[in-house]
Amino acid sequence: MSGGWVVTGAGGMLGQDVVARLSAAGEKTTALDRRALDIRDGGAVRDAIAGLEPSVVVNCAAWTAVDDAEAQEAEALRLNGDGPRQLALACRESGSRLLHVSTDYVFAGDASSPYAEDAAPAPRTAYGRTKLAGERAVLDVLPAAGHVVRTAWLYGVGGPSFVATMIRLERERDTLDVVNDQRGQPTWTVDLADRLVRLGRAAVDGSAPPGIYHGTSGGDCTWFELARETFRLLGADPERVRPTTSAAYVRPAPRPAYSVLGHERWAGAGIEPIQDWRAALAGAFPALRAAVASGP
User: Which of 7, 155, 224, 236 is most deeply buried (CB count within 10 A of its CB)?
Assistant: First the structure.
């Protein structure tokens, strides 16, 4: 292999931060956005990976429109299920490791304690089913070189997010009603990008076992609590955020009530889990606030 890294879906919010983290680490990196590589195209994927011969491929490409997937599950499956399979097949031929980003939506979301990495999946949405298909494809094709990293509640400067929306709406509305019956782990894309890079390096040197990892922040909160913390960091009155229930925001795809993931497997790779969500949000906030202020 010629070595180096390939990042697919490099134009997305997470992909941008993965590329930035690799660049900062001095890694040889090829960034492929969806225009440069459609991972659904098996021939194009095979040619790209064979030509580059990377040590590690990080797949950040995905269908992320959760509600749209309910009516377009076949199309979502092509990107979320068959796309990762094409990448895995190409990585098997080239001897590359594959890090594939997945989601908390593979679970039912009805637990009362954090989901372990080996907890039984039970997706309740088309999006979750298609992402689970991608996980299984990667692990089936690459049992010794496939790493699946599930994440949730992502925010960052490179794309839309709940936190960015709250920053913007604080300026526009006197009060906000935010759901208080969905619990999860807000996760900064910079933190996740760092763990993906560490995991890829550990995979190359043989210290990170293949399989499933959970890449979310420590601790947990509801969307309501996240909104109030965002207001607090803005210097605004958190009492302006009022609690409501999911019944007030019915959507085509049901949202998980409980999306808290456990992080036990990182220890086996010699990598510490991501920091607590409050500390991460505070660290990210200056850049997030600046990005919203400079946006449209």
Answer: 7
